[in-house]
Structures are given as structure tokens and as C-alpha cells.
Design goal:
The complex is a heterodimer of chains A (about 300) and B (about 375). Chain A has about 300 residues and is an alpha/beta fold. Chain A has eleven helices and 14 strands. Chain A has two domains: about 5-225, Rossmann fold (3-Layer(aba) Sandwich); about 225-295, Alpha-Beta Plaits. Chain A has a six-stranded mixed beta sheet with strand order 6-7-8-3-9-10, sandwiched between helices. In chain A, strands 2-1-4-5 form a four-stranded antiparallel beta sheet, covered by helices on one side. In chain A, strand 9 and strand 10 form a beta hairpin. In chain A, helix 3 (about 95-105) packs across helix 4 and helix 5 (about 140-150) runs parallel beside helix 6. The longest helix of chain A is centred in the middle third of the chain and has 16 residues, at about 170-185. Chain B has two domains: about 1-40 and about 170-365, no CATH class; about 45-165, D-Maltodextrin-Binding Protein, domain 2 (3-Layer(aba) Sandwich), CATH 3.40.190. Chain B has a four-stranded mixed beta sheet with strand order 2-1-3-4. The chains are: A alpha/beta (about 300), B mainly alpha (about 375). At the A-B interface, helix 2 and helix 3 of A face helix 1 and helix 11 of B.
């Protein structure tokens, strides 16, 4: 499949701090690729470097098969950007804001009108066309921010944490809007520190920490790369020390942690983990008050690779 | 593209009440408060006939000078009210403050005053001018009295020696206050400039990032935005001057240069704001605060609050006076009022243009940048 973005050995310093370290990846046409990493990991720096906003010390960036530079206007006209900070004019209405930003890319008034209406529909702001931004809720503002970035129908769309501090309803709307745009042919690069969003949205995930790519692949590929399989949180009515020691010796168990009356069991990735646990419960005649089975998440992937949580 | 940006930018600026307040409402309030403080200003500007005495010499008679005195002390717009007395009485009148000066008619005309001041300055200049042009003026009075009067009054610098007299002091101080307020209003154009530049640079705002990412040079956004700022600031300046004319501030008969320097001053204000916007990465509100303080300082140094400051700066720190745009605007207006010729006005205008070009060069150089070390 045709590569839309190709980044090789991107290195960026802020003074002595290495913000991006030999950062290489590519994005294929029609993909939604997620940059997942904790705050300060280098996601936004990566985006800004790719867009030619930041001076980089090393690396090559190609977009649509051409070298990206600050003067690459032919490339820029097919790019859309939704920034982390909402950038809309307080003194223009919802419609006027979208029209203004769309107008930076599309000169024809009639065509622009159609595009603006379409963008409003995509983000579900039909009822708020004449509202001024200060009258909108945080979620609606974020939707407007997105509409301003997508109205000109870019072929490549960068979204930098577009759902920060957004209510669940608006978040769902935003994620659905992005899906819809992608279905219409837009390639998307999406940065977030919410793993649920990446799981819902992205074809491929690039996990970033300290300016480096620490893992890359589809969600399933990343989860399958884990040593750990299921995680079970179980609470017994009564469990002796002897029984606990016996439980810890279950063959497929990797790690055990006890917090109050809840025991968390981390199993190896194999098929009969739960069968063995139930057999143990039966043999010891234990009574489980609650049992919570969790499959691995991207946070577990991040935890295993970096030793810290995504939201640290 | 140009109209798209111009139209939207115009909407934004007109709808942003804070900007409109600082650029238009605040200066109007300020000059209105001045007007309350310095009530009857129009009365103060009216030329008051100067009471003088002439002590005639029994031997010496200067017929030409008598013709000149006769012309200057006749008609509804006479300059002098003259009493012809002996020297003792003249001294008494001078002592009592009934006259500003007396002239001793002798071979070399002599002016006697007991203090320096506005009226005394005028009398002295007329005598000096008469000493230079002599009988030509008396002949000129017969054919063209207005021209003759102009010749005699030429070169009278209302700016000199005023500080010691109440009448001169008051009128001069009032106009300096007003001109300083106009200068402040011009410099306040910087609010627009600051906002515009803040929205141009990727390292200053999210709008800046969007503008830098647009598929064309940044100047395509800056130029229409700047022109909107100039347009709005010009309207604010014109409104302020018109308001001042209506409430009775006398700008003389040179209103077009008054409007011109006000508009030019507004452009300089916009450029100052833009240049300030480019310095450092403080928040917009912090920069606004710095700008307000800077603008007020510049206006203060131009004599807006304490007119003597203008004089002190001009005497003791002339370089500051020459590079302070508020002072150049204020002084330009001042020169239009006090001088017949436009030389000093043009010097101020040229100085403003030079400052403007320097600022514009800095801004143009800075906004060419499309890549940043950090955002």
C-alpha cells in the first residue's frame, strides 16, 4: 500500500534534552495510526516535527512521497491539523470559524459553503451554527476545533489529543467522526494517552516513551507480545496462609499481589489458566466472593516494556 | 484570500469589545475628563489683548513705529491696548500689574518688563522684528495690514518663556495634556498589533500554528490583518480628533495634518504592539500588561500627565524625546498649533516614519520564520 508518511531517524533536541531519538515510522494510505504514550513522551513534538514546525537535528520526512519542509505548500494544502489546544476565534460564530479556517485552503465560496455544512454535520454541531464559542461546552468546543481542521477535506489528518477533558457523549461523537472521515479516505495520525481510544480507533499503534518508539504494531499484535496472559482479581471468604502459599505455586502463575482481601493473580499466556484456578478452588474447598477476569490492555504492554503506567 | 482574511479579521476586531474600549472609548473618556478638569479651554486659547504703555520721548519721534503701534492697537483683533504715559506712571502701572510691559520711545527702542512671560515675549518679538525690518512694515501696513502683522509676529515662539506666567502656562499645559492623550490613543493601536502578531507566530499561540501550517506565506495573513488594524485605528483616531474639535480644542487651521499625524501615530502604535508581541514567550495578557505600562510611560514622557515633563525631557534628554513616538506625535500636533511653518511638524513626521520603517523591518524579518526551536 502507498506510503503517505515516511519518517526516518528523526532526532530532535530541546537544548541538551533529546526529545525525539531516532524516530522512524511510516503511515500507509487509509490507515489510522495511533501515537500512544504518557504526557511528555514526545507525541506532540513528533507531530510538530513532521509538520515542519520544529527545527530538527536529524532525520528525513516525506509526506505524499515528497520531502516535507516549511515551504512545501503543495503538501500543506492536503493536510489537516486538529491541535490539542482549542484554536477558534471567540468573536466568530461556529459557522464563521469553520468557514474562516476552510477558507485558508478553499477559495471558491460555493464549494466552501458545502464543505463547511458537511463538517458541521460530521461533528454534530448543526444546532450551534450561530453560537459564539464562549457559549459552547468543552465538548462542543472540541468538536468545533475538529470541524475547523477537517472542513477542507484533507487527505492526511493529524489529531493531537482531541478528546482531552471531553464528556463521554462528545468523545464518542469525536471518535465516530474520525472513523467516518477515515472511511471516506482520510489517513489519520492520532495522538492520545487514552488506550481505549487507540483500541477503538487505530489500525496500528506506535507506543512512545521518552522520545523513542518502544513498540509498534496492531493492537492484537502488541497484546500478543506480552508474556503475561489473564489477570484475575479474586476475593475469598477465607484463605489461610498455607492456602495462599499453595496458590502462589500454581504452575502458570507469574506473579501474585495481595491488597486487603483481594488477591491479584497474573497468569502466563496459555489456554488453561482459569481451569487450573478453578481446580485449585475446588480442591481447597474455597469460597470465592468475587472474581474479576481482565484480559491484557495496551497499558499492560506499556507497563511491561517501560516499567511504568501510561498515565504516570 | 485577501478579502476572506480582511473581512473575518474585521468582524473579530469589531466584535472584541476590550480592544474597542482601549482603542476608542478609553481615549474619549480620558479627553472628556481632561475637558472637565480644564474647563473653558476655548476661552483660554482666545488671544488676550496685551496691555502695554508707551513712554514717549520729547525729542525723538519714530513716525513709522507710531504707525505700527497704531495698527497693532486698533480693530477688533488688536494685539495691544496702549496707554501713553510718563515714565513714572509707566513704572507704577507695571508694578501694579496693569500692564505687561512698557516701551521707551528713544533712538533704540527699549522694552521694560518686570518678569518674563507669554505677553512679554510677544512684545519683545514684535520690537525685535520691527528693529530688523523697520519702516518697511509701516509702509506695508498701509497696503497690506495682514501681511505686515504677519511679518511682525513671525518667529514668535509660544513655547519660550511661558513657564513663568500663569496665562501662558495654563494654555500651553492644557494642549500638552491633550496632545499627550492623543499620542496615547495612537500608541494604543498596539493592542491590535499585539493581538495580530500573537496569532501569527506558532510559538505564541495555537492560531499561530494554524497560520504557519496554511498552504501559503504568512505575509498573506499578516498583510490583511495589519490593514484591518490600520483601518480600525484610523477610525478611532479620526473619531477622537473630531470629538476634540467639537468640544473646542483648537488645532489651528491645519486639520488635515492633524488627522494625518494621528493616523500615522496609530500605525506606529500598531507596529510597536506587533514588535512587542514578538519579544519573549509571555502569555498574551502579560504582554498586554507590559504594553499598557509602556504606552502610558511613553505618553507620560510626552507630557500627558505633567506637561513640564515634556519640557524637562526635551532639555535634559533630547534623544529620548526624539525617539519617543508618543512625544513625536504630541510634538507634531504642538508644532501645528504654534508654528506657522511646517518644518517642525515634518521633522516629527519623518522621525515617526523612520521609526515605523525600522519596526516594520524587524516584524517582516521575524514573521518570515516558519520553523521554531520549540513551540
Amino acid at each position: 500500500m502507498k506510503k503517505i508518511v515516511e519518517v526516518k531517524n528523526l532526532t530532535k533536541f530541546y537544548g541538551d534534552l533529546k526529545a525525539l531519538d531516532n524516530f522512524s515510522f511510516d503511515v500507509k494510505k487509509g490507515e489510522i495510526i495511533g501515537f500512544l504514550g504518557p504526557n511528555g513522551s514526545g507525541k506532540t513534538t513528533a507531530i510538530n516535527s513532521i509538520l515542519g514546525l520544529l527545527k530538527i537535528q536529524e532525520g528525513e520526512i516525506e509526506i505524499f512521497g515528497e520531502k516535507m519542509s516549511p515551504e512545501a505548500y503543495q503538501i500543506k494544502k492536503d493536510i489537516g491539523v486538529v491541535l490539542q489546544n482549542v484554536a477558534v476565534f471567540d468573536y466568530l460564530t461556529v459557522y464563521e470559524n469553520i468557514d474562516y479556517f476552510c477558507g485558508l485552503y478553499v477559495k471558491e465560496k460555493d464549494k466552501r459553503k458545502e464543505l463547511v455544512e458537511e463538517a458541521i454535520k460530521i461533528v454534530g454541531l448543526e444546532k450551534y451554527k450561530k453560537f459564539f464559542p464562549p457559549k459552547l461546552s468543552g465538548g462542543l468546543l472540541r468538536r468545533l476545533n475538529i470541524a475547523c481542521g477537517i472542513a477542507h477535506k484533507p487527505k492526511l489528518l493529524f489529531l493531537d489529543e482531541p478528546t482531552v477533558a471531553v464528556d463521554p457523549q462528545s468523545r464518542n461523537n469525536i471518535l465516530e467522526s474520525i472513523k467516518k472521515l477515515n472511511e471516506e479516505g482520510t489517513t489519520v495520525i492520532y495522538t492520545t494517552h487514552y488506550m481505549e481510544e487507540v483500541e477503538f480507533l487505530c489500525d496500528r499503534v506506535i507506543i512512545i516513551d521518552n522520545g523513542s518508539i518502544v513498540a509498534e504494531g496492531t493492537v492484537d499484535e502488541l497484546k500478543n507480545s506480552l508474556d503475561v496472559g489473564e489477570k484475575v482479581e479474586v476475593e475469598f471468604r477465607e484463605l489461610t496462609v498455607k492456602q495462599l502459599e499453595k496458590l502462589k505455586k500454581l504452575k502458570s502463575l507469574v506473579e501474585t499481589s495481595v491488597e486487603g482481601s483481594v488477591i491479584t493473580l497474573y497468569f502466563k499466556k496459555q489456554k488453561d489458566n482459569m481451569v487450573k484456578l478453578f481446580e485449585f478452588i475446588k480442591e481447597e474447598k474455597l469460597e470465592a466472593i468475587s472474581m474479576n477476569l481482565k484480559t491484557p490492555t495496551l497499558n499492560d504492554v506499556f507497563l511491561e516494556i517501560t516499567g511504568k503506567e501510561l498515565r504516570d | 484570500m485577501f478579502w476572506h482574511i480582511f473581512k473575518n479579521r474585521l468582524k473579530i476586531v469589531l466584535r472584541e469589545r476590550t480592544l474597542v474600549f482601549w482603542a476608542l472609548i478609553f481615549p474619549l473618556i480620558l479627553v472628556t475628563l481632561f475637558n472637565f478638569s480644564f474647563s473653558n479651554i476655548s476661552e483660554m486659547y482666545k488671544f488676550k489683548t496685551i496691555n502695554i504703555a508707551v513712554v514717549e520721548d520729547d525729542v525723538y519721534k519714530d513716525e513709522d513705529f507710531m504707525v505700527v503701534l497704531g495698527e497693532l492697537s486698533s480693530g477688533s483683533d488688536k494685539i495691544f491696548e496702549i496707554v501713553y504715559v510718563g515714565i513714572e506712571e509707566a513704572n507704577e502701572l507695571l508694578e501694579d500689574g496693569e500692564i505687561s510691559a512698557y516701551i521707551l520711545l528713544q533712538e533704540e527702542l527699549e522694552l521694560v518688563v518686570n518678569r518674563s512671560g507669554y505677553s512679554q515675549t510677544i512684545v519683545k518679538h514684535i520690537l525685535d522684528n520691527y528693529a530688523q525690518v523697520g519702516s518697511v512694515v509701516s509702509n506695508l501696513f498701509k497696503t497690506n495690514p495682514e501681511k505686515a502683522q504677519e511679518v511682525l509676529l513671525a518667529g514668535i515662539n509660544m513655547n519660550e518663556n511661558y513657564v513663568d506666567t500663569e496665562e501662558g502656562k495654563d494654555s500651553d499645559m492644557v494642549v500638552v495634556n491633550y496632545y499627550g492623550a492623543i499620542a496615547l490613543a495612537c500608541i494604543y493601536g498596539g493592542f491590535f498589533g499585539l493581538k495580530t502578531i500573537n496569532e501569527m507566530e506558532a510559538n505564541l499561540s495555537s492560531f499561530g500554528i494554524k497560520n504557519v501550517l496554511a498552504p501559503f506565506k504568512k505575509t498573506k495573513i499578516y498583510i490583511p490583518s495589519f490593514l484591518v488594524d490600520v483601518f480600525i485605528q484610523a477610525i478611532c483616531g479620526i473619531t477622537l480628533i473630531t470629538y476634540l474639535v467639537i468640544i473646542g480644542l483648537d488645532f489651528g487651521d491645519k486639520l488635515i495634518p492633524v488627522y494625518s499625524i494621528t493616523i500615522l501615530g496609530g500605525i506606529i502604535g500598531i507596529l510597536i504592539g506587533s514588535a512587542l508581541g514578538l519579544v519573549g514567550r509571555f502569555k498574551e495578557n502579560t504582554k498586554m500588561g507590559i504594553f499598557v505600562a509602556s504606552a502610558f510611560t511613553l505618553a507620560f514622557l510626552s507630557g500627558m500627565v505633567a506637561p513640564n515633563v515634556k519640557h524637562i525631557i526635551q532639555v535634559n534628554a533630547p534623544l529620548i524625546a526624539k525617539i519617543n513616538p508618543a512625544n513625536l506625535i504630541s510634538d507634531g500636533l504642538y508644532s501645528l498649533y504654534y508654528y506657522d511653518n511646517m518644518n517642525r511638524y515634518y521633522i516629527n513626521v519623518i522621525s515617526l516614519v523612520v521609526i515605523g520603517l525600522i519596526l516594520l523591518s524587524i516584524i517582516a524579518f521575524a514573521i518570515r520564520r516558519r520553523q521554531y526551536d520549540s513551540i
